[in-house]
């Protein structure tokens, strides 16, 4: 059974930082590109970032460039998203996703709230 379990989401003040983690199991993690997708209240899903199998190629939506860093640890089947300089508009449920268009499996999400 494929499992993607996100963690690290909390409430943080504008300008703060967070690191999200995603523990993957049930598939060969190192064989798949991975993505982070977020969904803000009342809005549709928005792709945030992706990383290739080896971790040496990364992709970001324009709003994340320069602030977010995606990384992976293939030895420990874990995906990360380091988020700096957080803004209120980053408030969303953040999902760890297997694949990079098409998306294959989704985690349950972790809530990030940026508010003063």
Please render the helix and strand layout as text.
Layout (H helix, E strand, L loop, with lengths): L2 E5 L3 E2 L5 E8 L8 E6 L5 E7 L6 E3 L7 E6 L4 E6 L8 E8 L3 E4 L3 E5 L2
Parallel strand pairs: 2-11
Antiparallel strand pairs: 1-3, 3-8, 4-5, 4-9, 5-6, 7-8, 9-10, 9-11
- How much beta, percentage-wise? over 45%
Structural class: mainly beta
Number of strands: 11
Largest sheet, described in full?
7 strands, mixed
Shape: globular
As residue ranges, the low-confidence spans are none
Average pLDDT for all residues: 97
Distance between the termini: 40 Å
Description:
The chain has 116 residues and is mostly beta strands. Helices cover 0% and strands 52% of the residues. The chain contains no helices and 11 strands. It has strands spanning 3-7, 11-12, 18-25, 34-39, 45-51, 58-60, 68-73, 78-83, 92-99, 103-106, 110-114. The strands form 2 sheets. Strands 2, 4, 5, 6, 9, 10 and 11 form a 7-stranded mixed sheet that branches. β7 (68-73) and β8 form a beta hairpin. It is globular. The N and C termini lie far apart (40 Å). 30% of the residues are buried. The mean pLDDT is 97.
Key terms for this structure?
mainly beta, four-stranded antiparallel beta sheet, 116 residues
In short:
With 116 residues, the chain is mostly beta strands.
């Amino acid at each position: 059974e494929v499992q993607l379990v996100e963690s690290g989401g909390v409430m943080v003040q504008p300008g703060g930082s967070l690191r999200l983690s995603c523990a993957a199991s049930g598939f060969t993690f190192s064989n798949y590109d991975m993505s982070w997708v977020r969904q803000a209240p009342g809005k549709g899903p928005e792709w945030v970032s992706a990383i290739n199998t080896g971790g040496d190629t990364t992709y970001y939506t324009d709003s994340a460039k320069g602030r977010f860093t995606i990384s992976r640890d293939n030895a420990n089947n874990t995906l990360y998203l380091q988020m700096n300089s957080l803004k209120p508009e980053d408030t969303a449920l953040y999902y760890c996703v297997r694949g990079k268009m098409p998306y294959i499996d989704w985690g349950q999400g972790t809530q990030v709230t940026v508010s003063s």
